Amino acid sequence: MNDTRPIRAKSGTNHEGTSAHNRRVMIDALRVNGALSRADLARATRLTKQTVSNIIDELESDGLVTSRQTVRNGRGQPSTPYALVPEGAFAIGLQIDRHMTRAIAVDLVGNVLVRLEAKLPSGGPTTGIRVILDLIAAVRRHLTAIASQSEQRLVGLGAAMPGPFGLAGNGDDPWMMEAWQKFPLLETLAVGTGLDVSIQNDAAAATIAERMVGAAHGLDHAVCLYIGYGIGAGLILGGELYTGAYGNAGEIGMALLAVGGKSTPLEHRASLASLYQYLSLDPADPNLYVKIHDLVSTEDRRIVEWVETAAADLRWSVHLIETVFDPQTVILCGSAPRILVDRLLVTMGPLLPSLAERPDRTVPRLQVGMADPWSVALGAAAGPISLEFDPRYAAILKD
Amino acid sequence: MNDTRPIRAKSGTNHEGTSAHNRRVMIDALRVNGALSRADLARATRLTKQTVSNIIDELESDGLVTSRQTVRNGRGQPSTPYALVPEGAFAIGLQIDRHMTRAIAVDLVGNVLVRLEAKLPSGGPTTGIRVILDLIAAVRRHLTAIASQSEQRLVGLGAAMPGPFGLAGNGDDPWMMEAWQKFPLLETLAVGTGLDVSIQNDAAAATIAERMVGAAHGLDHAVCLYIGYGIGAGLILGGELYTGAYGNAGEIGMALLAVGGKSTPLEHRASLASLYQYLSLDPADPNLYVKIHDLVSTEDRRIVEWVETAAADLRWSVHLIETVFDPQTVILCGSAPRILVDRLLVTMGPLLPSLAERPDRTVPRLQVGMADPWSVALGAAAGPISLEFDPRYAAILKD
DNA sequence: TAATTAAGTCAAGACAATTGACTTAATAAG
DNA sequence: CTTATTAAGTCAATTGTCTTGACTTAATTA
Predict the structure, then answer these.
(1) Beta strands A90-96 and B240-242: pairing type?
(2) Where is the composition biased (Polar residues) (chains A, B) (predicted)?
């Protein structure tokens, strides 16, 4: 037995894992339900009153929760509800897109405190990274002006950009952002900002935003169909964002539509990029969204055409997502003008039959989430908050 | 605040959760790596030597692990490897199919000790349940004859049958087993056997088998494409079987193949049922598999035709699975004759381009798993073992 | 033969949840 | 108005589980 093949094993846990989990469970409960008393928390989490009391004391002295007015509930001593303190934590979110970059600052409950954007120069990462670092620095300055403790309570920087990551090389597919995908973004941002950095694709980021403050709030099984320059699905499976073995799960835009024959990726038919192409719009045009909004609201013939073909493809995508994931709901979201997403939703109905047609359904099969150019940046910012405060299996384990 | 809306919260954990997790981690490590010393386990699980020592002592006195010959590893005291005791636990697996039922008994490491099958009468559950209960009783008698302690160490009964579950009603689609799907199987089996019963669809069961003793052994992100009478995908995501919000995740056989136009479910084109139909074979024929084997080995024209169309659909399915789940590997398995599955695998090559074409790949994109009529029953039996002994987030939580 | 290295044990300690009795503050009943 | 009841929340002791650091054992190497 002198071989040194690595031993594969899951990590064990100890008291600190237990305690970390229970703290996260409290925070999650307050996020999902709003203010709760210690007794409520004890019942909901199945912990004892005493344990909850200790944890709440601790969270309070850490500045993460605070008590509200006591309330009388009938007989018995009035209860004291506790709520999350928005200023308990902050995070920066960064979206890197083809032609521009956005940065945002959020607090513990998901309020957006600062938002800034900048055009990205065409030179790719070598010139773009300077713009990005400046933008982040500016966001931090603004944030400090609003909340003086923000720097001490900054839990990290979440970055979002189009995937997929780690591939062999895509040739020069203009749909991709190959130069950025190969750039050591994480390391560069970490050094340049001194923050903990995490990176996700844009659909995953939008999904985290939906879970924190949107349509997936409190749901443990939800899929967001994200329509941006590309198309992706963000997966909330078992209460956690699922990103696959290599971080590319949900890259549904790359799915080929037809079996055999000439097959096109979904992304080439139903994304904003395909819309720009169809309407010969310039993706770098700063008035793009206004133009699209106007075209939709005046029922322009060509955009109606595009919506109809895109809706057919998306209808099928929803069917596929339901069939494969069996989620509680599918959420249509995107960094697209709200009016366009609403129009898509309407045009997608009626949905294809699927196993999601349950007799006991309480949530709609398909609903609109945030449709806002800033949702990716918001989700990117929510990422570090979620990593730090949401209950997760990995948070229990050692190391 | 006198409303009584239910409070949604995750469950907390305590010492017992910690300890339960660490025990499971040990067992998992021994299952994946074979025999390991206490020191090895301590390093791999990041627990202290002392903790590992205590847990191993406990597992040993519970009859779940046992020591092997000490081995000299160079300097230092020789180490004592510990291994799982096969007789440490047993489980019964049950497969209910359209025309027959199979029952199996396995031990802790996945050895099959008993296998029995019976024809199911055409009368559906009302008459079939008697046959099934008798079959289970017979398996238990045989098991007791082999392992006298088996009854005390029986952790449960896992049942597997074609999904989907809990739907509104499928009309009388002959592909479905509607009467069985509506029958209160779980309750009836629990009462009839006195065991803990769990139910899964056949693809999920086959996947658990692959994870325990097959191609997914030790992998945390793998998808099994299961080809049986129907078609389904079994999902190992983040080291656990994922079954969706309502237990139907992976029912990929219901996925419609084309966008718009006349679209057929995958299941109607690439399943064994479609093969039987194509070749006008009787699904209830006891010599079915022998016939198919012969047809494949003699390269019968019509089966070659079927394989080619099915392979095209399955090639696309693999592409889709890779795109959506980003797994470490896709495993082709089924309750079909091995030779047919092998033939399908060969015919499916070359695979479609996808993000699974990674430069750093160590596992094949697609591989054959168990292809054996008994794999579903085996996986059904592995279910209760996995539930009882594998590390899982839910095992840590209270209640 | 002595030094070194590694496996494994012992006993005390630390940490976090649990337990059960107690306090507080409200409503309901007589 | 008084007393019983109910529920929130605290106190202090206890329990369960992992950790720590010193120690023992048994091998190889110098």
Answers:
(1) unpaired
(2) 11-20
Q: What are phi and psi of A279, to 5 degrees?
A: -100, 5
CB A64 within 8 A of CB A29: no
Kindly report the CATH number that applies to the domain delimited by A15-84.
Answer: 1.10.10.10
Residues of chain A with CATH 3.30.420.40: 88-207+378-396, 217-372
Among B13, B19, B269, B320, pick the best mutation site for testing chain A contact (most A Cβ within 10 A): B13
3-class SS of residue B369: strand
Contact A66, A83 (CB under 8 A): yes
CB–CB of B73 and A237 under 8 A?
no
CATH 3.30.420.40 occupies which residues in chain B? Answer: 88-207+378-394, 218-371
CA distances in angstroms from B267 to A251, B119, B251, B252, B254, listed in the order given:
24, 24, 10, 8, 6
**Prior bond of A6 cis (ω within 30°):** no
Q: Which of A13, A33, A259 sits opposite B312 (nearest CB)?
A: A259
Domain B88-207+378-394 bears CATH identifier 3.30.420.40: yes
Cα-based torsion angle of the residue sequence B53, B58, B63, B68 in order, rounded to the nearest 10 degrees? 10
Q: Do B11 and A45 touch (CB under 8 A)?
A: yes
Q: Is A15 on the interface with B (CB under 8 A)?
A: yes
Footprint of strand C on the protein (CB under 7 A): A 15-16, 18-19, 22, 47-51, 54-55, 70, 72, 74-78; B 12-15, 37-40, 49-50, 53, 70, 73-80, 398
pLDDT tens string B197-256? 999 999 999 999 999 989 999 899 999 999 988 899 999 999 999 999 999 999 999 988
Residue B135 confidence (pLDDT) above 90: yes
Would you tell me which CATH number, out of the four given (3.30.1540.20, 3.30.420.40, 3.30.300.20, 1.10.150.170), belongs to the domain B218-371?
3.30.420.40
Smallest Cα distance from A171 to chain B, Å: 13
Residue range A161-177: average pLDDT?
69
Domain A217-372 -> CATH class: alpha beta
Residue B86 is given by DSSP the state G
Pairing of strands A90-96, A154-161: parallel
In this predicted model, what pLDDT tens digit does every residue of B346-387 receive, in sequence order?
999 899 989 899 888 999 999 999 888 899 999 999 999 999
Tokens 């040993």, located at residue: B60
Q: Find residues 28-67 of chain A whose CB sits inside 8 Å of chain B.
A: 28-29, 32-33, 36, 40-41, 43-47, 51
Chain A residue with the nearest C-alpha to that of B317: A259
Considering only CB atoms, which chain A residues are within 8 Å of B233? 324
Q: Tens of pLDDT along B69-92?
A: 999 988 999 999 999 999 999 999
Using the beta-carbon criterion (under 8 Å), do B326 and A243 form an inter-chain contact? yes
Give the position of tokens 């001593």: A77
Nearest by CB: B251 against A25, A323, A396? A323
What topology does CATH give the domain A88-207+378-396? Nucleotidyltransferase; domain 5 (3.30.420)
